[in-house]
């Protein structure tokens, strides 16, 4: 079987092959049971297929975004790392069209309102149809869904509006490119309340060391703290993804987001624990050294 996608045959002999120039020399493969949806949206190529061992899978522009088997590790950590680092009432989600981050956010009884800004409504519709267990919080009365550009929304938002901002973006190409910019984080810092926290999809430490350093050192420069946490996701490149976290100045208590300030109570959780929260900030030596010594390496790169 062959399904053309972005000029390549990414489904070959019953296997979806994730080949991408962003991670050269390696590929991931999942066995396909049935293609459920394949269309060009206004912004990107959307593929949904039923796999043999990982449940339903959503793919954007040839890159796996979510599988039913391992989605909980990414969704729970990206949501609960910032949410348990403070006591939020107002939350902004940028991206996250499958609804998984939203599902985790509304588990927090202290959250009074969630503003959800997703650029591609077709992804939301696909998740509702093909991943109802992930998208089950869509329609929650606490939630305002805005189908539009999250960067533009941040630019127009009022100062000190949100306790937590969660950016669940795809990789820094295509629709998500502007979410990986210093300008976006300057606006994010402005619209956070004092002591508020932003948590963004922070890419893979095995593949994106320089981008991670840029996020922590440059994008995080206007915040009181900027850190990187690691998450295991078997179906992502190298089996790992990160969370870039930063806290705005002016809050009370701990500046770092490394330790939760609240305990999970009566929550259905499959991956996140307070121990996982703290452990996520333990980084391999090569990345720790890179984050601690930026200027010398950058000067050498320019010479």
Automatic annotation (TrEMBL):
Keywords: Polyamine biosynthesis, Transferase. The keyword Chloroplast does not apply. The active site is at residue 168. It comes from the Eukaryota. The keyword Acyltransferase does not apply. Belongs to the spermidine/spermine synthase family. This is PABS domain-containing protein. It comes from Durusdinium trenchii. The lineage of its organism: Eukaryota, Sar, Alveolata, Dinophyceae, Suessiales.
């Amino acid at each position: 079987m062959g399904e053309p996608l972005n000029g390549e045959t990414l489904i070959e002999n019953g296997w979806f092959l994730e080949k991408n120039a962003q991670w050269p020399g390696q590929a991931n493969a999942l066995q396909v049971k049935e293609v459920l949806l394949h269309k060009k949206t206004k912004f990107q190529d959307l593929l949904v297929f039923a796999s043999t061992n990982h449940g339903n899978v959503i793919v954007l522009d040839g890159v796996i975004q979510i599988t039913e088997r391992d989605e909980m590790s990414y969704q729970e950590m990206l949501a609960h790392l910032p949410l348990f680092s403070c006591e939020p009432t107002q939350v902004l989600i940028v991206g996250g069209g499958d609804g998984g981050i939203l599902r985790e956010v509304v588990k927090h009884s202290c959250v009074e309102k969630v503003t959800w800004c997703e650029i591609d409504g077709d992804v939301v519709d696909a998740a509702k149809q093909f991943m109802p267990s992930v998208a089950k919080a869509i329609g929650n009365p606490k939630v305002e869904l805005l189908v539009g550009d999250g960067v533009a929304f941040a630019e127009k938002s009022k100062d000190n509006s949100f306790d937590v901002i969660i950016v669940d973006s795809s990789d820094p190409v295509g629709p998500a490119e502007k979410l990986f910019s210093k300008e976006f984080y300057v606006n994010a810092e402005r619209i956070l309340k004092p002591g508020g926290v932003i948590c963004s999809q922070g890419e893979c430490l095995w593949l994106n060391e320089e981008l991670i350093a840029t996020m922590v050192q440059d994008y995080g420069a206007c915040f009181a703290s900027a850190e990187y946490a690691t998450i295991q996701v078997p179906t992502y490149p190298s089996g790992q993804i990160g969370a870039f976290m930063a806290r705005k100045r002016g809050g009370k208590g701990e500046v770092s987001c490394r330790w939760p300030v609240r305990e999970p109570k009566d929550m259905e959780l499959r991956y996140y624990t307070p121990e996982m929260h703290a452990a996520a900030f333990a980084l391999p030596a090569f990345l720790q050294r890179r984050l601690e010594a930026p200027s010398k390496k950058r000067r050498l790169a320019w010479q």
